[in-house]
Amino acid sequence: MRVAIFTGSSDGADQRWHEAATQVTRYLVRQGAGIVYGGASVGLMGAVADIAIEEGAEIVGVIPRSLFSEEVPHTGLTELIEVDSMHERKAVMAQRADAFVALPGGIGTLEEIFEVWTWQHLGLHDKPVAFYDIHGYWTPLLRALDGMVDAGFLSLKVRGSLVVADTPQALWAGLGQAER
């Protein structure tokens, strides 16, 4: 199984995010998962890659050439795929992954996880989509999604298709339960 991890190219304002990213990555690869991610050597993306490499796991990075100066491609990956655009990055990541997980991140992380969730809803894939809600990072967003259900703009079925977990073990179990 390959898990696509969407996360930030910065470390965030709290060391807990770095610790959470390394902890969940270590757990996933020790379960036998390969990692597909954004290809950067900086921020939480770099932390994910470093742990996967340290653990001897397969790690595939996908990075648009236009981001080389900001995200600085990681040089120690199993495979680094250079693409021309963010659209191509997401398509390659989706093709290479069997599941998708959002760790703490910003607008890019949101855009990536929402796109693959939308693709799932539209029937373009049947792979699990998850939010790793460590230290309640995603809780405000998840409440907003619940508000969308209450307002009639998001079905309970689509909302329920998201895996939400706050421990590596619960995430792994949720990804397995979400497989079809």
TrEMBL record:
Q: What is the catalytic activity of this protein?
A: N(6)-(dimethylallyl)adenosine 5'-phosphate + H2O = N(6)-dimethylallyladenine + D-ribose 5-phosphate; 9-ribosyl-trans-zeatin 5'-phosphate + H2O = trans-zeatin + D-ribose 5-phosphate
The text of the family note is: Belongs to the LOG family.
Q: Which UniProt keywords apply?
A: Cytokinin biosynthesis, Hydrolase
Q: Which Pfam families match?
A: Lysine_decarbox (PF03641)
Q: By its UniProt entry, which InterPro entries does this protein fall under? A: LOG (IPR005269), LOG_fam (IPR031100)
List cellular component terms (GO). cytosol
Write one Gene Ontology MF term: cytokinin riboside 5'-monophosphate phosphoribohydrolase activity
- The EC designation for this entry is 3.2.2.n1
GO biological-process terms attached to the record: cytokinin biosynthetic process
Which NCBIfam families does the record cross-reference, listed alphabetically? Answer: Rossman fold protein, TIGR00730 family
Q: What name is this protein filed under?
A: Cytokinin riboside 5'-monophosphate phosphoribohydrolase
